[in-house]
Amino acid sequence: MTSDDKNLWRERWLGCINELTSLDLQNKSWLDKTHTNPHWSFVEFMCSYFDDLGIDDHYKYPIDKGWLTNQEFEIIKDWHEALDQYDSPKNDDYDHSAILNDPKWLEILQIGQTTKSKLASTLNETEKKILTEEINYLNFV
């Protein structure tokens, strides 16, 4: 493991958490029919988090690699579980309006906001910025 691997993973991890806990970003990017970048969708936000980070098996890989501390895992585990168990309305992951108006999704976002706040308090300034900065998706389309 190199420190570059760890830093890259953590940057992607914190960015995913930021995206998945920002209702404002989701409303703007998921509902914007003018952009063509597929990243800005519910499906891709979930895939970026669950698939791209290698966190299936309850974060075993990044914890074993030393990329995530046990304290950080304890902070995010309830939100992670809620997110993992979420099913979009009518199982239509492309109906962004339905997802954004789903009380279950809004509850997960609320849990995520609390989680993000707790996690931010444990991070250095560089990582805290990645986790909490406002993302302008228009910079990426």
UniProtKB/TrEMBL annotation:
<protein>
    <submittedName>
        <fullName>Uncharacterized protein</fullName>
    </submittedName>
</protein>
